[in-house]
Amino acid sequence: MVIIQSKLPFSPKSVQIPRTTSLMIFLCALTTRKWMPSPSSLCADGIVFFFKGIDAIDEESCGGWENLPPELLLDIIQRVEAGKSAWPARRDVVACAAVCRLWRLAIKQVVKTPEQCGLLTFPMSLKQPGPRVEPIQCFIRRDRAASTYRLYLGLSPALAGDASKLLLAAKKVRKATGTDFLISLAVNEFSRSTNTYIGRLSSNFLGTKFVIYDDPPPYDPLIQSNPKFGIKKVSCLVLPLVKSKVVNISYELNFLRTKGPRRMHCTMNTIPSSAVQNDGFAPTPPTFSDDEFSYFPLTSNRKEALVLKNKAPRWHEQLRCWCLNFKGRVTVASVKNFQLAVDPPLNGQSTGQQDDVVLQFGKIGKDIFTMDYRYPLSTFQAFAICLSSFDTKPACE
């Protein structure tokens, strides 16, 4: 039985989809039976679809919606993509990709990578390079009691409000030999056995050396079980566990114990130094896992890896403090604040070349920090680098 009920309040976990698109998704879902949403999972202009006993539907009455003309489907996807440029409205694009393989193929043609469009859409977008011109602006919330850090998409908590999109979460775990920051797509899921775990940041005992590991999930379930509709897990694609050191971070020791800013170097093992040139490019993982299993390829020669360093602040005589131009994005002085830029000498470039900032991080309130990044860094890399600034560094200060 299929019931269509109108003028119902939106469910907190619902996916808002335009009326035309939701009808197309509904019909395709009935035909393909590859996507069985839970009750109140589709909401569009006051319409809520409830699915019960879907096997009892006459198959002939559904028509051949699985053979939807590619031109019509592509036009629908383009309209959805053009009208949903910000979260939470961008959930509509994700919902379209979850209908069936036909819709996912159309999504691949329309939705671009963050480097091309400057938007974050799918989970794999967090591991793809950011835009080349305008940075993606985010903010981090720190929970001291739980030792967790949450990364949100938006200018600040005050400006983003309820529209802020959770991107990543991290949990700090202290060990005898150092500290680990476990990074996940979910707020309370940091176990390495879950498919939300994507990597970690590890430090040495002194907090001067850090390594960012890209850990792919141990499995990728093709069809999740749902007891409400009697759907069982069909198969489970076991992926090879490839763990790679994507970034090496080092903080210089402060032997004289003089007060001053920290000095940091980042070696991007997966990004060649030629990526920052006009005709260069950074490795970009595929958006969907069904394309091919991919992990960050390491550069063949460590000397070819891109090296970033923090910009040296200048001493302000009147304010009696070290200053950097954060363009209004940082308002509170902190030793954690930094700007990361390309190091021309270490990347085979002339010293007179402009060192554009690719990542900046700073404090704006109690346990609130901003993070702005752009190409060639990804969200995952930028967030992990910023997490290194939260760790205690007695030998560097």
Q: What would the principal axes of the Cα set say about the shape?
A: globular
Whole-number tally of structural domains: 2
CATH superfamily of the largest domain: Tubby Protein, Chain A
Share of β-strand residues:
25-35%
Largest sheet composition: 12 strands, antiparallel, barrel
Question: What is the annotated CATH architecture of the largest domain?
Answer: Alpha-Beta Barrel
What is the CA-atom radius of gyration, in angstroms? 23 Å
Largest sheet, order of strands side by side?
A: 5-6-7-8-9-10-13-14-15-18-19-20
**Number of helices, where a helix is a run of at least 4 consecutive DSSP H or I residues:** 7
Strands, total number: 20
The portion of residues assigned to helices is 10-25%
What does this structure look like?
With 397 residues, the protein is of the alpha+beta class. It folds into 2 domains: 2-111, no CATH class; 136-388, Alpha-Beta Barrel (Tubby Protein, Chain A), CATH 3.20.90.10. The chain contains 7 helices and 20 strands. The chain has helices at residues 19-32, 70-83, 91-97, 101-110, 114-117, 157-160, 379-388; strands at residues 2-6, 15-16, 42-44, 47-51, 136-143, 148-153, 165-174, 179-184, 197-203, 209-214, 219-221, 236-238, 244-251, 264-272, 305-310, 314-316, 321-323, 338-342, 357-365, 368-373. Strands 5-6-7-8-9-10-13-14-15-18-19-20 form a 12-stranded antiparallel beta barrel. Strands 1-4-3-2 form a 4-stranded mixed sheet. Strands 11-12 form a two-stranded antiparallel ribbon. Mean pLDDT is 75; it is low at 1-18, 27-64 and 219-241.
